[in-house]
Amino acid sequence: MTQNSLIANEPNELNELRQDALQEIFNISMGQAADSLASLVNDRVHLSVPQMHWVEKSRVQDLKAAMKRVPKGAIICQPFFGYLKGEILVCYEQGTQYEVIGQSLAYSRVDTQRWQHELLLEITNILGGACLRGVAEQLNIRIDFGAPALIDRHNDVTAILLNPSSVWVKALMMEIGFSVQTMSMTSDILICMPEHYIDKLFSCIDLLLE
Amino acid sequence: MNTVYKQILNQLNVGILVLDEQCTLLYANNFIRDNHKHEPRTGVSLFSQFPEIPEDWFRKRVESVVMFHNTSFTSWQYRPHLLNLMETRPITGTHELMYQSCSLAYLGHFDQRHLIGLIVQDTTQTALSQMKLASTLKKLNAEHRQLQKLNQQLEEAQSQLVQSEKMAAVGQLAAGVAHEINNPVCFIKSNLECLQDYTRKLIELSQSVEGLIKHIDDEALKTQFNQYKASLDIGYIQDELPEILAETLDGTQRIQDITTSLRDFSRLDSAEWQQADIHQGLESTLKIVNHELKYSVDEIVRDYGELPSVLCLPAQLNQVFLNLLVNASQAIDKHGRIVIQTRHETGSESITIRITDNGKGIPAEIQAKIFDPFFTTKDVGQGTGLGLSISYGIIQAHQGNIQVTSAPGEGTSFLIKLPVTPKRTEHTVCV
């Protein structure tokens, strides 16, 4: 992790203020997202306080070490764009129970097995949307979403980030743990934004701080 | 401007439906109208116009989109035909229904109701290409696996062939050498037999001379004879010579036995199928492996039944017996006992040969693997792992079968079943 590399030109005091503000914005958004999700799926949803990681591609191993947990399973990716641009990566571990959440999204028990991947895409869509909607509202910016896609059936997120062909160099990664009681799972949402958009994000935060 | 927007919506190669949160259909663009079997009416329930949409599921999606003000997606991979829209190529198309990826987007709150747009993208070409690619890939993978398997089989067959050829070459060499040794041994033996006869006569002569001398009165001559006889140790020679000759003859006989066994074992004349005596094959093999067995095996029990002559490749069957006997001796630490049992039931068209040892046995988990090529429990360099696989191949080529039963700690028994007269069509197939 290179906490200062992305914002090296700014005075540290300002950076700390910005990071605190960003943390606060995400905290509020996560609270709202958890409530909305819970009412949609009629279940207890827990979203953790986001952890911020400043990551260089060459040092993804440091991210792996710094993450609270690095689950391995089906990885869904969903792009978001608008004023900010990035991707949401969610890993669903094997052994996750989908029946109850599937039923709450109107998939029958038989369907759940059959539509498991579609269900994962939709859960990712709802989760990602719920997390970033609050951020967009607080920063007064527009964020839209592309269709989520299953990019790996069994891997961990850091392995995906290490793909040598991928274009990113430096990025801000927000690690959010989430758990849905009936899914018997705890996993991570990783909201990733490349370096270029961090400046835009901070300029929004600067406006709020003024 | 509204007319312009509507024109644009109607010109798009994308289906667009607008509905409210109650799923009342408010608008459908031309793409939808033109490609759906029935032209949809607006102002009524979406599900009455598109009964193919799963209602509960769709309403939940609408609820989520309204709640989060977001967009929800479906993909052709998981939900290929959300709407029953027809393929856009009625002539060259290969599918009746259009593959679609859809987005359900929140449009906003107008006139006290939430509006939602369903945007339908035609992904038929992508879907068909992807499916074709996936099926080609699957086929390629299957072919690849098949090729790998064939390659492996080829490698195994090649190794078996090499080993088999090697053993045949060694056998031929041994038989050739045996033949060369046999010739001088024959005349050595013949000469020794003559020598034995001549010696016997000479000793007889010597003894009669001795008897005659006893009756002569010339004491000086007697003394001189006895002194001469004693100085030459003739008494000892008379006793030893027959023994030496008998032992030498015995040795020569043993050399002859070994060379005969080597010749019989390799059967230079056995490249072709022929009627052969299985017991003779077993006996010549036993002689060949005697040096291997003598240190660990105390007893070899020959429980031979009456066997008819069997149409076979004798040298190859001997190779099987050799492999089984060597394995048996290696499984035995000491005080071993090998039982060779042969049977032929009256009227039966096959014979059985059972070779049983009281060695350490084969663990159950590897019994299924022992006939696999390259499978060996011996140390590196000690065994090729091909002996039993080649034996298996030889028995198969004789249209017989070979089975193993083993109890760890108690011993192993190999049972070979061979037809007396294998069908001629497959005679030539043999490793």
TrEMBL record, chain A:
GO terms for biological process: chemotaxis. Signal peptide: none annotated. CDD domains: CheC_ClassII (cd17910). GO terms for molecular function: hydrolase activity. InterPro entries: CheC, CheC-like_sf, FliN/MopA/SpaO. Keywords: Chemotaxis. It holds the Pfam family CheC. The keyword Metal-binding does not apply. Residues 19-51 form the CheC-like protein domain. This is Chemotaxis protein CheC--inhibitor of MCP methylation.
TrEMBL record, chain B:
It comes from the Bacteria. Pfam families: HATPase_c (PF02518). Residues 176-422 form the Histidine kinase domain. Its EC number is 2.7.13.3. The keyword Kinase applies. Gene3D superfamilies: 1.10.287.130, Histidine kinase-like ATPase, C-terminal domain, PAS domain. Residues 130-167 form a coiled coil. The keyword Transferase applies. Keywords: Coiled coil, Kinase, Phosphoprotein, Transferase. One of its GO terms (molecular function) is phosphorelay sensor kinase activity. It catalyses: ATP + protein L-histidine = ADP + protein N-phospho-L-histidine. CDD domains: HisKA (cd00082). Signal peptide: none annotated. PANTHER family: HISTIDINE KINASE, SENSOR HISTIDINE KINASE. This is histidine kinase. It comes from Nitrincola lacisaponensis.
